[in-house]
Amino acid sequence: MMRHSQPHRLTRSRLAARGFTLVELMIAMTLVGGLVAMIYGMFARTSDALIDVDAMAGATDEARFALEMVRNELQSAGSQASPNAAVDPWVRPKDNPMFGLIPYEGWQNSREVYQGNATLQAIGARNPRSAFSGVVMVGAYDFPQSFLISEVSPNGARVENVERGMGRLTRIDPFDISADSAVIADDTDPRAVALTEQAAARGLRISDRQGYMQFVPVRQASIAAGALELTTAAIAFRGEGRMSGLESIDGQDNDYDAAFLDAFWFRVRVDPYDPTNLQLVRHRLDFETLMALNSPTLNQLEGAIVGVDAEAKEANTLVIANHVVDFRVWFDCADTFGAMQPSPLATQWEPATGACLTPPASASEPHLARVAHLRLSMRSENERTNRPHFEVSGDADWLGFQGVEGTMQTYDVDPRNPGAASVVTVQSSVDLANFRMRGL
């Protein structure tokens, strides 16, 4: 009897040696490719989320820093004014007063920044709830401490090389961190730049022992033998038959308390190098030019930025934050008797108007602004295609915005592409100092 086991074993061996079929390979490759795609998709989503979280964290930090800077300078604005402007007999040879806060034409909730070109107009149309406020502040910022001046004349003064004079400006750190006892010899000393280079843009607050104050522009400054020589606008003194002005006893020179004042303009502008980037900036304004303006316009403020040309004006412009999508400023007001008006804080995206920032009609009335509120929103650097752009209006619960009171969640940077950038919002409030700054 013949056995067929050997041929059977040969057939099995041949089958094992021939490998996988094409169909089997294609199925295996499909399964592996799907697995790789799944792993890559999970990695890509995780990486994209991490990038977005990191970008939002950076935007949050930048927004907090920017808002804190504006808040601090708001709190300092008018810090050199009288504690009771309603009754203090300040010197006012001119009728137009100077305030620590100065509104201008279209200062609140403006969308003018979107009118520059077609791209900006399209971005503005896609983000209808985005608007921007601006405000001019006058106060003692760069040199917050007061100092002693002497040899005060009708058009100048001298800061002597003594501890309460130049020592206050150059050798006493305002934060009491360090001290330098070396004397500034002349204008060639690098430390003199901070005092002399911007002097023509600053103001000078002068007060005597009776509390009479004047605010005069500084026109020129120079240093010689450690003393600072200032040339100013007209300074008025109390003379015979005159009830106001700085005291001057028998024509003898007196020492006076003084402080440097700076005028800064905060606003949102278009980045000169990237039209899709909106920047919160701080311009340094010329104090004398600002004093001559009555209810300034936007063009007048642009002309008041320190600098003879565009390059010099840019050098006097500090960029505080990039990728700004909304910046609002509004105020709680007092009535003419000084009592707070019963106006609730804004709870929706549109804040209350700041009508009380307008200077009082009567020069004897104090400013009515009492509390300032700030809201700054910034977007992440890039858009995400998997984040749709929602325009929040009315009942937005169906969009998943429950309980956010209509605040912006996304910002459409490029309407031609799908997706949007995430938005972070920070808000702060500050009690204001007395804002009365009556000038000459």
UniProtKB/TrEMBL annotation:
Domain of life: Bacteria
Pfam families found in the cross-reference section: N_methyl
Annotated transmembrane regions: 21-43
InterPro entries noted in UniProt: N_methyl_site, Pilin-like
Coiled coil regions, renumbered to chain: none
Assigned keywords, A-Z: Membrane, Transmembrane, Transmembrane helix
NCBIfam families attached to this UniProt entry: IV_pilin_GFxxxE
Protein's recorded name: Prepilin-type N-terminal cleavage/methylation domain-containing protein
